[in-house]
Fold:
Amino acid sequence: MITESALARPDVAAAVEVLPEAIACGVEAHGEVTLGVPPTELLTLARYLKEQQGYARLSAVTCVDWHPREPRFEVVYQLHSIVHNRRLRLKVSLPSDAAEVDSVTGIWRSANWYEREVFDLFGVHFRNHPNLRRIMMPEGWVGHPLRKDFPVHGHKYSYQEG
Structure:
């Protein structure tokens, strides 16, 4: 369901009209709009928002681990339209047994290191990413330290020489 206050934004209303299946839900709170996007529709909506609605800038990609809730992960994309001075948040929910979504690096090059960070710290895989490897933890590190089920003191042997 998309709230009336979210639909009051012309960019959101246009996206819903053109790509109704690409937006599962939408809400406006505190002057910010957040759209829930099915993982299969992320690239289609992202491309439309950049090319047709002026969201030329991807300012962040992050993740939330809702463990033990399912779907466990929520990948969050912060978009910015400099031309229209608007911001938009996209959220994609992923189950723990299939924490995988398409990479948006082909749409916004700035996604490269953001997606690598989410992969490194949460273990979410980004399909078709040009260089998906650890960016913060050493290459031999075992596990993903921002997952809620990661031991507080780390694994006894969290690093393996590779």
Remarks:
- The domain at 4-127 is CATH 3.30.460.80 (Beta Polymerase; domain 2).
- The chain is about 25% helix and 25% strand.
- The mean pLDDT is 94.
